[in-house]
């Protein structure tokens, strides 16, 4: 009798917890990323510390923001446009609240929409090559500078693979 009561109590608590999942809270669990996206995140994380170089697109040269993203996704077999604005125009848009690790985040820097791009790594953080004199680094969207300039997200995992593009 006691074990039956305990079982119903546990099931009741679980049901109450699940009902709470349907509410419209501001904190939603992050959706899972695809394998390719996790690999891109891991590759970008390994590039932290490489210097920013305008036009740079490799560890030997250093990276600018779009060169970093292009390099990481080329390793996954995804060919991306070379600059942030072209990436934003060509890649499929994602609602900011639906972003997943591996998605690209775009920023309006110096009153230029889609002038900076970084790779979302989860937990409101992204990896990017910020500017001259800095290195590839991880930054937080909790920082007012980045939060106020965030203008969009794109998902390159569904974009064209290198094998699908004639070179």
H and E string: HHEEHHEEEEEHE
Apparent shape: globular
Unreliable segments (pLDDT under 50, ≥5 consecutive)? 1-33, 162-167
Mind telling me the C-alpha Rg?
20 Å
- Please outline the major beta sheet: 6 strands, antiparallel
What structural category arises from helix and sheet content?
alpha+beta
CATH architecture: Alpha-Beta Complex
State the end-to-end distance: 72 Å
CATH class: Alpha Beta
The tally of strands reads 8
**Count of spatially separate domains:** 1
Across the major sheet, the strand order is 3-8-4-5-6-7
The level of helicity is 25-40%
Number of helices: 5
Descriptive notes:
The protein is α+β, with helices and mostly antiparallel strands. It has one domain: endopeptidase domain like (from Nostoc punctiforme) (endopeptidase fold (from Nostoc punctiforme)). The strands form 2 sheets. The chain has a 6-stranded antiparallel beta sheet. A two-stranded antiparallel ribbon has the order 1-2. α2 packs across α3. The termini are far apart. The N terminus and C terminus are likely disordered.
Topology:
Layout: H1 2-21, H2 35-46, E1 57-58, E2 62-63, H3 65-74, H4 84-90, E3 93-94, E4 104-109, E5 112-122, E6 125-128, E7 137-140, H5 144-149, E8 150-154
Antiparallel strand pairs: 1-2, 3-8, 4-5, 4-8, 5-6, 6-7
